[in-house]
Write a structure and sequence with these properties.
It holds the Pfam family Ig_GlcNase. The chain is of the alpha+beta class and 455 residues long. The chain is built from ten helices and 21 strands.
């Protein structure tokens, strides 16, 4: 909670019972005026029970009845920090040592020199929304994608249209440091193609950011805040959902990396890590299953670890992923990491040896259960179903170019996901349908551009 004004503890009384409140902060990248800061320090003193993390019984016996009385404190349970870059945040001195806020090479997030300090109060990156949001919020002049200007250094400079510049667009390249991350997937043909490639980069950027951070959590880092989750206007930078409440793929990349128990590839060392056991219990009797897939559905690399135990709040490197060093590795491949109890992992080995590849997508049947409509999707093609994403629309026979038919917001249990052969994934969609409107749920994928109507 940041303070912009302070009158007799009013904001504290208003918010102190909120379950998501972690601490009180006097100002964002600044400290309050001296009189307000002193008042906050006095009014937000910690109750003695919360000053001592050991909670010793001797301390409790030595406290006077007046100091023990919770009614003497506006809060007493949460620490007060005078500013977002003071008192343990960034370099702790109020210098602008947060950030960065621009595109990065994904492996950079894992390197020791990415950030010097323990807690980064602000870090951000790109945030391009989907093409439908651009068309819904900008005139046709704003539908032009950037010009990719090749420099003598070999890097590419993106030159966005003036409307994107006004909306604070963050380029997907940084000449002299980061090659254009969109061009890694081919030159975009149009706005739809550009925004689809941008979603893939969004996903990779924010997943790598969180994975890199948690790889060093509690050994170097103590925390991070991402700037920002949501855009208060139609801006084109750092956002997990846009002004119309449609999530970008960055949201799902971040959420994947922030799982309480997570398995990941360290992009700097290429070691598989059991990372972020943020639960209070030790993780025991588990194994990691590692497989590599190509678009055709073949699996040239497969490995299962020995039985593992991972302590609470620890990151454990397990083994190196050596497929890139193997003889004739595929230039493009998909890495699938799974964490499971040891016995189910062995069962999956048998299934891979004996079973065929799952066929994917595009025929379906539906039924109603408990007020929910359920659709099961099977398919007719082999291989990896890459970067699948749902969207919900109002059914219309005819609509004008640029007209936004989406129903928003929609809460997805997952989106922007991929399925290797043999995988299944239940997805739940929740949304409110406007009166008189029939919803249409569609599924698109990287290797299935035309889309498919689910229901």
């Amino acid at each position: 909670m940041y303070f912009s004004c302070y009158v007799q503890g009013t904001p504290v009384k208003l918010l102190r019972n909120h379950p998501s409140l972690a601490l009180w902060v006097g100002g964002n990248e600044q400290v309050p005026p001296k009189d307000i800061n002193e008042a906050l320090k006095n009014d937000l003193k910690l109750h003695p029970y919360f000053e001592n993390s050991n909670g010793s019984s001797n301390l409790k016996n030595d406290i006077s009845p007046v100091l023990k009385d919770p009614s003497q404190y506006l809060d007493g349970t949460r620490v007060y920090i005078q500013g977002s870059m003071w008192d343990g945040f960034a370099n702790g001195k109020g210098d602008f040592t947060d950030g960065p806020y621009e595109i990065q090479n994904p492996e950079s997030f894992f390197k020791d020199d990415f950030y010097k300090y323990g807690f980064n109060p602000e870090v951000g990156s790109v945030g391009m929304p989907v093409a439908a949001t651009i068309r819904a919020t900008m005139p046709p002049e704003g539908w032009q994608i950037p010009i990719f200007k090749k420099l003598s250094s070999g890097f590419v400079e993106e030159v966005p249209n003036p409307i994107w510049q006004y909306h604070k667009y963050i380029p997907y390249s940084k000449p002299s440091k980061v090659h254009d991350q969109i061009l890694l997937y081919g030159t975009p043909k149009d706005l739809d193609d550009f925004c689809l490639k941008a979603q893939l980069v969004n996903y990779i950027q924010y997943r790598a950011l969180l994975e890199g951070w948690t790889s060093r959590m509690w050994s170097k880092y103590t925390g991070v805040l991402i700037w920002k989750n949501q855009n208060p206007w139609t801006g084109l930078r750092g956002q997990f959902y846009d002004h119309l409440h449609d999530q970008t793929a960055g949201f799902y990349g971040c959420r994947s990396a922030a799982e309480p128990i997570h398995v990941q590839l360290n992009l700097a060392t290429y070691f598989i890590e059991v990372v972020v056991n943020t639960t209070s219990d030790e993780l025991s009797d588990v194994a990691i299953e590692v497989s590599v897939w190509d678009l055709e559905g073949t699996c040239p690399y497969y490995k299962v670890s020995e039985k593992l135990s991972v302590p609470s709040k620890r990151t454990v490197p397990i083994f190196e992923m050596k497929y890139p060093k193997s003889k004739n590795p595929k230039p493009v491949y998909f890495l699938l990491l799974k964490l499971a109890s040891l016995e189910p992992a062995h069962r999956r080995i048998e299934e891979k040896q004996e079973g065929g590849l799952i066929q994917r997508i595009f025929s379906h049947f539906s039924w109603e259960t408990n007020g929910l409509r359920v659709s099961e999707i099977n398919g007719t093609e082999d291989g990896v179903a890459f970067f699948l994403h749902f969207s919900v629309h109002a059914s219309k026979m005819n609509h004008k170019e640029g007209e936004d038919t989406r129903i928003l917001p929609v809460h997805y249990s997952d989106n922007y996901f991929s399925l290797a052969p043999g995988e299944e994934m239940p997805i739940t969609l929740s949304f409110e349908v406007p009166p008189g409107v029939s919803p249409r749920v569609t599924l698109h994928g990287w290797n299935y551009h035309s889309g498919h109507t689910i229901m």
